[in-house]
Predict the 3D structure of the following.
Amino acid sequence: MKNEKPRLSFWQIWNMSFGFMGIQFGFELQNSNVSRIFETLGAEKDAIPILWLAAPATGLLIQPIIGYLSDRTWHRRWGRRRPFFFVGALLASISLIFMPNSPELLIAGIMLWIMDASINVSMEPFRAYVGDMLPSEQRTTGFAMQSFFIGVGSVIAAMLPWIFANWFGVANTAPEGMIPPSVKWAFYLGAFAFFFCVMYTVLTSKEYPPENMEAFEKEKANTQFMDGVRETFMGIFKMPKTMTQLALVQFFTWFALFCMWIYTNNAVTNYLYGTTDPTSALYNEAANWANACSSIRNLVAAFGAFLIPVLARKTNRKTAHFVCLVIGGLGLLSINFIPDPVYLAVSMGMVGIAWASILSMPYAMLAGALPAGKMGYYMGVFNFFIVIPQLVAGATLGFITTQIFGGNTLYTIAMGGVSMIVAGLLCLIVKDADDK
């Protein structure tokens, strides 16, 4: 890679980021509906976090390996990262079609594993792609553009069950043990959107070849795959200082998010609407409102993605991230005190401010501290600190919720709010290599 990368135009950054909208269709359908699917198929509160372990465990295995491989890939036509965009999009789209047709709980858990692995194959190289293509002064904009498309994709994907039920009259309930048709059609449309958006980026963007192709090919030829895998997983002990500091921020951030994703559906249906019957119209109305509020959260994130860089320029990136995380943490805490489910939209809007920053600021700070030739490798290692807190959450939240909080999932979400505020405070100690 050349040390001095040319500045890209707005539309070039748009094209290279557009695929993330499709990826977020997949992730948002997963985050908003998988707990609902698990409950419909008979999962108890303490079992849901265990079933969710499939997602972070998959990320722990897939992301660093894909990052390592994409660093060592070059094809004259397809480039370095785009082959992984394509393969992941194809597999994820197929998985999205099969997921809501799971006949039983075990199959749904296995499908979550397969679906998350496929999404990760596309997603991880997109983070490295920004570092590959943009000069330092445009990286915040590049990650903010990704955040915008993540927000837009999430808004639409989270609303899909509600849209199908209310605009097109698709049934929103089903017999016991069956997934409602409105959810199934949401996943089918999400599969199409995932593939279309990613292929748009593949076909409209280019990549820079390695600066010294001969040296690149020699290094690739001399590197054994298993040695590379071992190096990748040992990378956690070789992180630059900025990456180590950001890892702490990420741990508490993503623990908070996992509290929200696992238990929002249960908290809304059980405590804000007062229903525990997944076959009832009230339960599915409540679940759709939870999805709609996720959509509001992501709408705020989509527009906040362009305001956060302004705040970062007025202050700095770590201060901007601190402010956003604290607002998000207060949003999660506020869910315990809202008098009516309609106010959940405000709480999730506050979380949306944090979400916009989570998707851009840590990566913008990290990219400036990494060597160009190992961008994908370190981005993969960095994702350990998205995965590890989720593994911790998956292993502990069932016990904490049932044994300490008496089964009240609102308290679990409040604990996530505290964790997000702690992440904001830790952000203040981060050394941003690009900070002027």
The mean pLDDT is 86. DSSP finds 18 helices and no strands in the chain. The chain has one domain: 10-427.
